Amino acid sequence: MKNLIFDLGDVIIPIDLTAPVRNFAMLANLPEDDVRALWKQYDIWNQYETGLIDDESFRTHVRQLLKNDAWADEVIDTAWNSVLLDLPVERIERIKSLQSKYRLFLLSNTSPIHIRRVNHVLTSLNQPTLEELFERVFYSYDVRMAKPSPDIYQHVLTEANLVASETAFFDDNSANIKAAEELGIQAIHVQPPKTILDYLKDV
């Protein structure tokens, strides 16, 4: 094994996928189910994470959807970033310890607001940013593709000049794992109560 590819959410940083909807519902004084239905109907999450809309368009959509033009950018960003939980520094330290042995990459379905927040947290903990921690980062909004599409995995392999059979991929989502396996990548399903540290013990 020469190359390790990591997912971000629930692999490096714990996440709560229900938190943004919960917080936006609270801000808008609407039932969570109503906000969740709107989110799903207009597919804002996916549009933003695949780069179809930028930060400003995302915030504008949120204001229009939840009928509140008065929300400042910071209010929307804070509610959106509530998906991100406390970052365990020991996971970053373990990944850093692998830099001399493997080529390290990040592949994440994410948005610019989330990445800026994660990097802010990392620097506040005296840790390298994601772009410094990995040889290359592949963000869905940047490449305009998202897991589990086979295209995004092929893009990473091609761009980084990786051989699939020499590459391990760590992700918490079973569909993402299956898609990677079908391309010949050794995919490891990170499942609680285990964390990425458990899967890296023998690496």
From TrEMBL:
Coiled coil: none annotated. SUPFAM superfamilies: HAD-like. Pfam families: Hydrolase (PF00702). It comes from the Bacteria. PANTHER family: ALPHA-D-GLUCOSE 1-PHOSPHATE PHOSPHATASE, FLAVIN MONONUCLEOTIDE HYDROLASE 1, CHLOROPLATIC. NCBIfam families: HAD-SF-IA-v3. This is HAD family phosphatase. The lineage of its organism: Bacteria, Pseudomonadati, Bacteroidota, Cytophagia, Cytophagales.
